[in-house]
Amino acid sequence: MIYLTILFRVVYNFIRLNFIKLFRYNKFIFTPIQLLSVNTKIDIRGGSSKFHLLGRINARRDVTFAIRNGSLVIGRNVFFNSGCSITCHEDIKIGDNCLFGPNVLFYDHDHIYGQGKLVNTEGYTKAPIELGQNIFIGANSIILKGTTIGDNCVIGAGTILKGNIPPNSLVYQKKEIIINPIV
């Protein structure tokens, strides 16, 4: 039964990804065998958008790839758990053999806002995100614009990242539970 499910996913995605390439977007490059859930959303907008799947990736339910005039490059043997989301307005590169826990979010942009102005009309500030190889990012983490993560890093669950993380690092945010009596 498991082999039929995998075969269905591979055939379904081969057809779906070719339709995206043929009818919607010709700057979409992928290898033929992909293990994307049927619920994986691919939303490419803008004439300068690029989406490259360099090798086989595996994405569970409700994973979203949204490219808005940006460039998203995903390496070989990358796994996205349920609920992961990448919104790319500039440039996001993910190296080979990376694993992402549930609900990991990527944003290579921030909204520009000012007093008395509408946030949705002011545009964005942008900076690239680059992840090396063999990285594990725990559940509910957020990767913000301008982040570079070196090879062989482990990022703890619930961590918000911005900036440079050197290779071979364990990164987490200290979380303390404080319990006080109600008086």
From TrEMBL:
<protein>
    <submittedName>
        <fullName>Acyltransferase</fullName>
    </submittedName>
</protein>
<comment type="similarity">
    <text>Belongs to the transferase hexapeptide repeat family.</text>
</comment>
<dbReference type="InterPro" id="IPR011004">
    <property type="entry name" value="Trimer_LpxA-like_sf"/>
</dbReference>
<dbReference type="InterPro" id="IPR051159">
    <property type="entry name" value="Hexapeptide_acetyltransf"/>
</dbReference>
<keyword id="KW-0012">Acyltransferase</keyword>
<dbReference type="Pfam" id="PF14602">
    <property type="entry name" value="Hexapep_2"/>
</dbReference>
<dbReference type="InterPro" id="IPR001451">
    <property type="entry name" value="Hexapep"/>
</dbReference>
<dbReference type="GO" id="GO:0016746">
    <property type="term" value="F:acyltransferase activity"/>
</dbReference>
<keyword id="KW-0808">Transferase</keyword>
